[in-house]
Structures are given as C-alpha cells and as structure tokens.
Amino acid sequence: MRQHAAHWWQDMQPIIRSRNQQALIAQACIFPLRFSCFTTVVALHASTTFGAGPTDIGMMFTALALSQGLGMPIGAWLADKSTGARKGLVIPAGLLSAASLGMMAMATEDTHFIAAMACQGAAWAFVRMAPSAADMGVLSTVSSFWMSA
Question: Within a domain: residue 72?
Fold first, then answer.
C-alpha cells in the first residue's frame, strides 16, 4: 500500500507543479464558491435592502442565467480562437465579475441588483469558457495518447 501511494505521489508531482493545472484547479473551485455566495448572501442582502421577495430574487437569477446563456456562444468562439493560457479572456472577465459583485454591496433597488447579476452572467460566460477550452485541449491530448497506445 505504501509503495502504491509513493508511486501515485511521484506521478502527481508534475501535475501539482504545473502552473496551468494549478490555474484550472483554482478555476474549478471558484464556481461552487460563487454559486454559494449568490444563493445565500446576495439573496439575503437583496431581501434586507429593498425587501426582495421570491419574484424579485427570481428576476435577479433570470438576468444572470440569460446573460450567461447569451454570452456563452461568444465566449466559446473567442476561447476557440485564442491560443495559450487564454489570460486575455479570463482576467478581464474575472475583474468584471469581481466589480459587479462589489456593486451589489452598494445596490439600493432591484434594478441595481438585476444589472449586477446580468454583469456577473456575462462575465462568467467568458470565464467558464476559457478553462473549458483548455480542458478540451488537455482531454484531446490524453485521448489521442491512449488511442495510439
């Protein structure tokens, strides 16, 4: 058992040291944390700030889903056209995402929250597509390796 663990650790070292893999792992962790924040903190903040009910909160999440759904084809197209780490897509979109989350702290009415959630969705249409394209590049490399073996 100890030898098996030692071999596994030896196999994992290149992956753990890879900056690209570290970025993909961090990117994978951001999505559930973001979702947890939206489903609890933002909804509570909206209900406290302007008395948002189920309809208002539903509109906020609809704005997020629509803008993300409409932006994903564009994000996917740009991710496909980009080469390398795709930092030019991820960093600006991540900054927009952080700024729109910060805007919610100053929101005082429903239109502010809806606009901030729409910005979040649009930003994540680009943030999620770039790592997905990188994952596909990794997966296609791995599958071509196994197919040739």
Answer: yes
**Residue 8 is assigned to a structural domain of this protein:** no
Domain membership of residue 133 (yes or no) is yes
Nearest-CA neighbor of 110 among 61, 62, 64, 52? Answer: 52
Task: Tell me the residue range of the domain where 66 lies.
Answer: 19-148
* CA distance to 99, 127, 147, per residue, from 92 (Å): 10, 9, 37
The alpha carbon of residue 108 and the mean position of all alpha carbons in its chain are separated, in whole angstroms, by 26
pLDDT in tens, 53-77: 999 999 999 999 999 889 888 888 8
pTM: 0.69
Mind listing the pLDDT tens digit for each residue in 82-91? 776 677 777 8
The DSSP code sequence of 5-67 is HHHHHHHHHHHHH-HHHHHHHHHHHHHHHHHHHIIIIIHHHHHHHH---HHHHHHHHHHHHHH
Does any domain span residue 34? yes
Task: Domain count for the chain, please give it.
Answer: 1
Q: What does the pLDDT look like over 72-84, one tens digit per residue?
A: 888 888 877 877 6
For residue 144, pLDDT over 50 is answered with no
